[in-house]
Write a structure and sequence with these properties.
Blueprint lengths: L10 E2 L1 H8 L3 H9 L6 E4 L2 E5 H10 L16
Antiparallel strand pairs: 1-3, 2-3
Length: about 80
């Protein structure tokens, strides 16, 4: 089975958002607990983020991304 990249999905988990967009757990948790311009959907006990709305929000708030240090691999 082919693994789908978070960039190709409509809904992503907070863990996928953190890894794919280079964010911190604290920032994503804070964003999900406050009222923002992106939508979080709840399925049973899981939180899912609507990816395209989250990308728009990140484009307006570039300061949320972490600066990559030497130990992180660059994403291509």
């Amino acid at each position: 089975m082919k693994k789908v990249s978070p960039g190709e999905k409509e809904l992503i988990t907070p863990a996928e958002a953190i890894e794919y967009y280079t964010l911190s757990w604290r920032k994503v948790g804070d964003l999900m607990n406050t009222k923002n311009n992106f939508t979080v959907k709840y399925y049973d006990d899981r939180s899912l983020i609507i990816r395209h709305e989250f990308e728009k929000y990140l484009a307006q708030h570039p300061e949320l991304r972490r600066i990559k240090r030497g130990k992180y691999k660059k994403r291509q």
